[in-house]
Design a protein that fits this description.
The chain has 12 helices and no strands. The N and C termini lie far apart (about 60 Å). The chain is an all-alpha fold and about 250 residues long. Helix 4 runs antiparallel to helix 6 and helix 8 packs antiparallel against helix 12.
């Protein structure tokens, strides 16, 4: 009887607002701000070397976002939709040399003491980072565009976390400055703008219970991608210290 009740609820088409409520509940339960590594990072509890490891590995995620977005862009059927999504690529790649989110992340990495060329080479990233990030890119490449767009909705949860991160890192680390963390300032306005489009698209285009379930599954997957990256960092650089061969070794 319980199984039948659950199945009946799953087969019901949610209203757009109910779908949004369920998506936000996924973030409240699974977003990576809850991970122990982030709690240490935001609380000023990591060493400089551990912050370097975070900046280095996170760079790979940042650098692959435009590639992920290009896969989604290629599946959007109208000029209007493609123009909207293209803005994300420009936000990260920039529209001129020295601009964009990837460049700002490189400056963050330099600000915590890493060599730019080494960061860009990605030689020192953890296998767990590489596998998680590439799984995300492949997901957006291979799945329907509705699911690819839904997977971006972790941005619903980021603005408040960014504010906490910046405040905590400035208070907790003497080697971090506002200039170092300049990557995050534009994201406070870019992320809500991105969410307005992506959430509106998902609420309008998920028209069956199966599509709504796929949207929620896509967001859970993306939360897992972010969580897995932090698992790799924690296991390698906090406890028990299992740094993979070839990965960054702090001096």
């Amino acid at each position: 009887m319980n199984v039948q009740v659950v199945d009946a609820a799953r087969d019901r088409l949610l209203t757009p607002d109910e779908l949004e409520e369920k998506l936000r509940a996924i973030g409240a339960e699974r977003y990576h701000h809850l991970h122990p590594f982030h709690r240490l990072l935001h609380g000023g509890k990591l060493t400089r070397a551990q912050v370097q490891a975070w900046a280095l590995n996170r760079y790979y995620y940042q650098a692959m976002i435009p590639i992920k977005d290009a896969h989604a862009l290629s599946k959007l059927p109208t000029s209007e939709l493609r123009r909207e999504w293209r803005r994300r690529i420009i936000d990260h790649d920039g529209d001129a040399p020295g601009a964009g989110g990837i460049e700002r992340w490189l400056k963050l990495a330099e600000g915590v003491g890493l060599d730019r060329a080494y960061v860009q080479s990605t030689r020192g990233i953890l296998p767990g980072t590489r596998f998680a990030v590439e799984a995300y890119v492949n997901f957006v490449r291979d799945r329907p565009v509705l699911e690819g767009i839904a997977s971006s909705l972790t941005e619903m949860f980021s603005p408040g976390i960014i504010a906490d991160r910046v405040r905590g890192m400035l208070e907790g680390y003497s080697f971090v400055t506002e200039e170092t963390l300049a990557y995050f300032t534009p994201r406070l306005t870019q992320a809500p703008q991105d969410v307005n489009f992506a959430l509106g698209y998902v609420k309008a285009e998920a028209r069956t219970p199966a599509e709504q379930e796929a949207v929620m599954s896509a967001l859970r997957f993306k939360c897992d991608v972010l969580w897995a990256q932090l698992d790799a960092l924690y296991l390698a650089y906090v406890e028990p210290g299992m740094i993979a061969p070839g990965a960054f070794v702090p001096e």
